[in-house]
Amino acid sequence: MRTGRDAPTVAVVGLGPMGAPVARHIARAGFPLQVWNRTPARAEEFGDRGVAHPADLRARVVLSALPDIDQLDEIAPDPVVRRWAGHGTAYLVVLSTTSPDKVRRLAGRLGRWGVTVLDAPMSGGDAGARAGTLSLMVGAAPEAYACVEPVLRSFAATVELMGPPGAGTAAKLCNQVIVAGTLVAVAEAVDLGRRSGLSGEQLVRVLRGGLAASAVLDAKAAKILHREYGLGGSTVNQVKDLRYATGLADALGARLPQTRHTRALFEEALRRGLGAMDHAAVYEAVRAEGGTARGTGPPPA
């Protein structure tokens, strides 16, 4: 695929904290762009690139930045996919975290219309999306990957073909095992330090200088220290990802003992009404005592 005059049109559906910056990077790279979002106001910054209905998209490559394949199935049933194919859509890329089985089912459904599915879940959070430094784990046939890779590299710093469709999603679930487990460890360390009379800020500084340093510590420590959970990656999505990870583990006979405990803590945070807040809100479950967390957006129904 070439950028410039001969570049294929790329569509992004879902303009949340990840999808909107991804779309901006694609446009800056020279790809003709179309966008759709369930809330039209979010598409206004893209001007006439926005379409009123998913069926109106006319793009060679469609990227789904929706929360999961379930939402994609809702907005792109067979009649919509048939229209996409009729207008030249050849590839659909799932950027969300889901399950390998859902990816393969989607590939079978869209394949009936000649649309090839790739899974390329994103890691790096909203900050990585804004900076264009995401890491993408791709599941695809090699020829499909070669066609779509230039689009993916327009908004990601690391792009790896992991295997056939579903392999990218399996790799992302491995990623989420580490992210969620590390986030719980940071929350536990801050809680233990505070109970010991330590300054949380000092503790984080010294942790960053040693073997405990991590991208999770850098990105989430301030949220935990201030108990302010403005949305980055949400708690409800973290629970979704951990459920997929443990489901895959069950299917493959992997124990994942620490991850199962981590999942239970995030599910407790969900029960506390923190689903719509950043997943650093797991600190409220770790500390397990009274107090009101501050964040943005209402809890999920």
What can you tell me about this protein's structure?
By secondary structure, this protein is of the alpha/beta class. About 50% of the residues lie in helices and about 15% in strands. It has helices at about 20-30, 70-75, 80-85, 100-110, 125-130, 140-155, 165-195, 200-210, 215-225, 235-250, 255-270, 280-285, and strands at about 10-15, 35, 60-65, 90-95, 115-120, 120-125, 135-140, 155-165, 230, 295. The strands form 3 sheets. The protein has a 5-stranded parallel sheet, with helices on both faces. Strands 6-7-8 form a 3-stranded mixed sheet. Helix 7 crosses helix 9, helix 7 (about 165-195) crosses helix 10 (about 235-250) and helix 8 packs antiparallel against helix 9. The model is unreliable at about 295-300 (pLDDT under 50).
| Assembly form of the protein | single chain
Q: Secondary-structure element order, as H and E?
A: EHEEHHEHEEHEHEHHHEHHHE
Radius of gyration: 20 Å
* Major sheet: arrangement of strands: 2-1-3-4-5
Structural class: alpha/beta
* Proportion of beta-strand residues: 5-15%
Major β-sheet, in short? Answer: 5 strands, parallel
Quick check: average pLDDT? Answer: 94
Number of helices: 12
- The counted number of beta strands is 10
First-residue to last-residue Cα separation:
43 Å
Helical fraction equals: 40-55%
Label the overall shape. globular
Low-confidence stretches: 296-301
